[in-house]
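Course assignment 3, question 2. Fill in each field.
Student: A.L.
Task: Predict the tertiary structure for the chain below.
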Amino acid sequence: MLVDMYVKRLRRGSMSTREAASIVSERSGTVMLDAGHALGQLTGHQAMAIAIAIDKARRFAVGIVSVRQDFHFGTAGCYPLQPIE
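Answer field:
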């Protein structure tokens, strides 16, 4: 449904072709990623896949990964289910 918008934004340069976000901050139970205006589906999955968050949750009772400079990430409901698997 949003493919046309993605293509237009890629052509205008307002969305990046980066495939991975970079860690810009890491503290006790948190990690902050910078997506560099990449597709949110890629960085949303990456944020949930970070094993650091699971380790942090075990150690600090919470493991939070946030993403900044991200583009639309689709259906939010699929991301919280990933760590359960």
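Instructor remarks: The first helix runs from residue 3 to 12. The chain has a mean pLDDT of 82.
Grade: pending
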